[in-house]
User: What shape does this take?
Amino acid sequence: MLDLVTSRGIDNVTVDEISRVADVSPRTFFNYFASKEAALIGDGPSLPVDSRIDVFIDAGAGADILTGIGELLAGASEDAGQDLDLNSRRRELLKSHPELFAIRMANMRQFEDELAELVERRLRADEPHSALGDLELRQKARLITLMAFAAMKHAWACWADAGGSESLSARLRQSFAEMRTMNGTSHSK
Assistant: This one.
């Protein structure tokens, strides 16, 4: 599919052609993807859908929240698997097609919102009688989420620059550890 779009342009490739190359019916294609653009950009990051979320929420105020987020993301990346060549090709495609980049950014914003909601749940569980109001708690959760996104972006860039020689999950853990070391303090609340 990427070869077709690279050689002929996104507007000159149809779902029928993509389906034929992938040896699936268009109906099957649409069972997995909403559009050819969604198939081209691939899946974005996602949170795990298992007990790891409960472990994160219930970790307690003494546990470092950024470490917990790093473990969630590392676990999710282990589940997803990573193909460096495919990711590199998609990255180049996003650079040359702003409309695909916009879709990718919207997907990332959705993931950011999901993570911020999870962080907010954790903060509420850590301090159920906090003096912070709802707005202040949401703002704190968003700040923690953006810090986590910085570590995530750093991990992905390091992983890609190293040619995928280590696992992305290991690189995520390392980037989160480096962030804690740089801060010199724990961000448990």
User: Anything to note?
Assistant: Residues 1-39 form a domain with the Arc Repressor Mutant, subunit A fold (CATH 1.10.10). The CA atoms of residues 57 and 122 lie 5 Å apart. The mean pLDDT is 88. The chain has two domains: 1-39, 42-183.
